[in-house]
Specification:
two-stranded antiparallel ribbon; 226 residues; 3 helices; alpha+beta; Trefoil (Acidic Fibroblast Growth Factor, subunit A)
Length: 226
Amino acid sequence: WVPVETPEDLVGPLFFIFNSEPLSCLFCSEKDHSIGVRPLLDKQLPTCEPDEVSFVFVGSRIAGGSDTISLKTFNGKYLASDKFGAITAEREAIGPQEEWRPIIKNDGIALQNAYDKFLSVDEIADGGYKLRADVETIGFCETWHVKCQARFRKKLKSTKKESKPISEFEIEQMYVLLKKYQTWGGGRIKTTKDDISELRKAKKEGNFSEALLDRREKVKADRYCK
């Protein structure tokens, strides 16, 4: 189990730790399926791991909601919050109350519900903890340390795209335009330095497609046209 570092890590098995004394975690009761906070045997944040299935929640992206997730318990129900901040896990389908928006901060992660309130740990009189989701700001009690399984962590993909020579791009584009209707030099297109320079200029000025059409007119060799 490794610390969550990016929103992409919040997909798959998750372990939510609250930095109490001793450490505790979010869990779903195996008896009545209620949601609460339970102390952990391992008191060290870097090494603690879930030792019960009830400590693990499965995160999934909400379809159509790019920045929201759902959290499923071990028994297939979803973590939910109503407008009063009550926390339950009773439904097998996802609605607005089962949606959570993770807010990643330097010291942990906060979970915001559909009513713009945050999941919070409230200490009660007997020394225990109670969950609520009616807090409007993020503080210590709203901050969770979240771990995911290393094998589920998605590797960041490079956003850098390979750049092709403009002459190659021209060939690809013209082939699409001409292959059904034209014959053009036996499938060969010759581009001169001047042609490439003109296309570069057109791309920079925002009329690259028009320039490609002009090139098509220059190189096409329809057998019915003379």
